[in-house]
Amino acid sequence: MQPSGRHYVVVRPLFSEDSFAEQHERINRTRKTLRCDTNRAKNAARSLLPIIGWIKNYNIKEWLLGDIVSGISTGLVAVLQGLAFSLLASLPPGYGLYTAFFPAIIYFFLGTSRHLSVGAFPILSLMVGAVVTRLVPDGGPPANITGFEGLSMEQQRVLVASSVTFVMGAFQLIMGLLQVGFIVMYLSETLVSGFTTAAAVHILVSQLRFVLGLDFPGVNGPLAIVYTLENVFSDITNTNVADLVTSIVIMALVLIVKEINDRFKSKLPVPIPIEVITVIACGVSYAFNFEKRFNVVVVGEMVDGYESPIAPNLEVIKESAVEAFPMAIVGFAVAFSVAKVYSVKHDYTIDGNQELLAFGVSNMFGASFRSFAASTALSRTAIQESTGGKTQVILTLFFELKPSIDLGFLLEPLPRSVLGALVIVNLKGMLMQFRELPFLWKNDRTDFVTWVVTFVASLFLGLDLGLAVGLGAELFTVVCRTQFPRCSLLANITGTDIYRDRKDYNSVSADLNFPSSRTVLFNQGASANFQRGLEVRQPSTDTSEDNNSIEGLDQPIDFSGIPIQVNWNTELPANISVPPVNIHSLVLDFSAVSFLDISALKGLKATLKEFLRIEVDVYIVSCDVYIMEKLHQCSFFDDEIKTSIFYPTLHDAMLHILEKHPDHGELEKVFTVICKLSRL
Question: Which segments constitute the STAS domain (predicted)?
Fold first, then answer.
């Protein structure tokens, strides 16, 4: 190749796949075998315990102080968010401290992200709360489950939350062992946006009873948001003014400070930890005795230190397994997305499968110590990174949470309305995702439909069913896009080996004017697709004729009475209407074909033979080498279909066709048909 300014010139022979293989021998690479040696054992240990890889490179002088400061700053937020999010899980606030402590210990050893702050996440907390209130409702008897005997309602709820968290972790662990970390790819950004926005609305509505100081039982299941709003408005005359005023003041102050953090983040050395305002609120509540003077509901008695481990309840696991699976997916998807952002920023890699293992074991371990579902929160992770945190240092965990667990009694006077206000303020980012709708409507109506369907389903059917409906809607749009592809007429751009839609360009070569392209989906009825798509007429500069040609591709054809093998060059029965097909060559572009199953192989082979029987030469271009291997393995080639029909590029095939049919120029009515396949 000789560069010449912004041009390049390539001089090479015209290749078919056979001639290319003769001149360029392919290396037969040996497949990896399962064998154990020292290096593989070390790599396996580093993969299972990522801490081994970075702890030996830990720079104590440069990193330790930053990690300690980061631990204290993040710990303050983790403590208060743990208290607040435990209300979403319908649990006593103190158990939120366990969620921020125990899972983080395991993630320190198994996680691949150095900046992720592991702990409670509002959406997961809400999903746990739905299971808790279903099995242990506020206004009725608990479910008939062995193991509830002799337990208080609080203990029953803790048992349910820890059991559903255990099975959620088990799902994550199994997916990690099966190496299915790629599953997060099926959760598109649009779907996640619609789902998290609906979850934010659920959380907002669920916190109204704390902000307004109302007392009514929680609701779960389909239409739960409707019933909750009904309870709020029917009981709104009983609003506790002290709770309402406290919540408004807290929300206003937190919003103002967060806005300052966002606007001046480049100038501030660390974000202002506005969550410290809860400590002030706790002191004011204690000094003025809010609980007795204004009938304000406070956090109350906190857990005293650590409690002994418990085993999950098998009956609860059976009752909650269906809800636990979407929780496992959502928890991993959120954590992986946040971890990926900071891994790119700080130039290190994360492993999706190892993250599944880490969160699976973390949640199972935490559930044994009465914590509920853990993932991450963007706000905590942002604080941990922006305050100088470099790694997941275990020392920061003790700076974060151990004093809070030991001294939790100091937070007992804190009004629950303050925690509710903090939860609502932290929803700002998710609720602002509504602003995406005008952009989606203008630029991608399909993604707009996916967003709206996911949002509406999650809002009214519940988060678990809503996620399933959203996935179904997304897969449906993919199928629709595959089944209704775009059709265009391809032509060669003068002086190049590039082919584009001939309607979009005037510089079309007269010698290589091959005027038809159709995207087809190979299946058992593939030959019918070809019969409909190969009406070829003499090219003309009149674009209206091209439009008529394209429209003719989609006209219905009566195939009843057609024999299995049809000679299109003979006279057909009077009741059969089939467009005349006068072509000498068919080129199939396999550049977008990534896999080939047995059904597609059989359909392709039958279709190629149909064309060969009516003396239409068939060529396949840009076929992946592994597809070629599959064709050889499945005995695709025989006396009729040979390897010589395969060409490395579309231009090679076109030049070969010109050599074979030199008299078929632009005045000839017979032209080559180019078919670009989207998949097989």
Answer: 586-657
